Amino acid sequence: MTKRYNKGEWSEFYAFLEILSTGKLYAADENMNKIATVYYTILSAVKNDIEYNRIDTGGIITFEHEGKVTNISIEDFKNMSHQLFQVIKSSNATFSVPEIEPFIEKLHLTTIKERSDSKGDIKLKIHDNFTGFEPTLSFSIKSYVGSNPTLLNASRGTILRYKLTGNLSDSEINDINNIEGKGKVIKRIEEIRSKGLNLIYKDIPATIFKENLQMIDYRLPEIISEIFLESYFVRGKRISEVVQSYLEKNPHENDRIIKYKVREFLVAIALGMVPLTEWSGLDEANGGYIVVKDTAEVLCYHVYERNRLKEYLYTHTKFDTPSTGRTNAGQLLTDANGEIVFNLTMQIRF
């Protein structure tokens, strides 16, 4: 029985095949272009606890499973990598790739997905040209094949809560909540403001996400919530432009500090912080961040190039407006304390 995976999961497997077949992982600049002079030599890749070693001299990938050593030619990896990419490129949603199933079985993989407790999407043993060491590092993978990926998914963990600067009558609340149609959330916020009131940060209901943000800066829950609210009124919602708009409207804030904190927030998400898991402050993906481009290139932002990664994330991500249905976002509600609140659900994508 062939197994079905989504584009992101197949893209992670493509990256595994492609990196092993080329033996090099090139660095990317802040605009996601390859830096031809900077690359990391790949010695092996670990998938589902099996280490696949690249032997250049023999032109093979070798691995051991249940005491038996298997050798597969690097050329076979190249062919499978190319074949898989073409299928990913032309497919939608969740799909199977029957023609590659025998190769997956040959690799003794029961699934192409990593275990849920695995740190990062892929583990690579590299020759570190900076230190001469040969560490095994975890990397996060994002795919641009077909559509741009999501950096932070909307969930009950990413709900941001605001309160009113004044009071509204029940009839006014009902009138605002009954505003429907395209752009209804913006229209509801504008209606609140037309009554001389505003929305200000109250809380992030998901305690773990709030504390994760406070690991970066104690004020970050408030800062990110206020910036996300501003995104509804910035065309395109690109984060760098939203931050600039927020700063222009809040001259009491320090430009340098706010921009630095937002960059730290984005890179923390990219390297392993998730809303509903307690974060240690350390990078789960301690090797860096791999991107699979729509052109089939596989590039990397290594941890040594953290500044490039920060700039890439800051200038290439945007706030997204997810559906309001599941979380009752975009409505005036009464909380447990009888206070009128307004929830928004944050999502970030490229």
Describe the main β-sheet briefly: 6 strands, mixed, barrel
Count of β-strands? 18
**Roughly what fraction of the amino acids lie in strands?**
25-35%
Overall outline: elongated
Would you tell me the structural class of the helices and strands? alpha+beta
Overall mean confidence score, pLDDT: 91
> Low-confidence stretches at least 5 residues in length (pLDDT < 50)?
none
How far apart are the termini?
Answer: 34 Å
- What is the oligomer described by this structure? single chain
Question: How helical, in percent, are the residues?
Answer: 25-40%
How would you portray this structure in words?
This protein is 34% helix and 27% strand. The protein has helices at 7-22, 74-90, 101-106, 170-177, 184-194, 207-216, 220-231, 239-249, 255-270, 306-316; strands at 5-6, 24-28, 34-47, 50-55, 60-65, 68-73, 94-95, 122-127, 136-143, 150-152, 159-164, 199-203, 288-292, 298-302, 318-320, 332-334, 340-345, 347-349. Helix 1 (7-22) runs antiparallel to helix 2, helix 7 (220-231) crosses helix 8 (239-249) and helix 8 (239-249) packs antiparallel against helix 9. The protein is elongated. The two termini are 34 Å apart.
Write a brief caption for the model:
The chain has 350 residues and is of the alpha+beta class.
List keywords for this structure.
alpha+beta; 18 strands; about 25% strand
List the helices and strands and how they pair.
Layout: E1 5-6, H1 7-22, E2 24-28, E3 34-47, E4 50-55, E5 60-65, E6 68-73, H2 74-90, E7 94-95, H3 101-106, E8 122-127, E9 136-143, E10 150-152, E11 159-164, H4 170-177, H5 184-194, E12 199-203, H6 207-216, H7 220-231, H8 239-249, H9 255-270, E13 288-292, E14 298-302, H10 306-316, E15 318-320, E16 332-334, E17 340-345, E18 347-349
Parallel strand pairs: 2-14, 9-13
Antiparallel strand pairs: 1-7, 2-3, 3-4, 3-8, 4-5, 5-6, 8-9, 10-18, 11-12, 11-17, 13-14, 15-18, 16-17
Helix pairs in contact: 1-2, 7-8, 8-9, 9-10
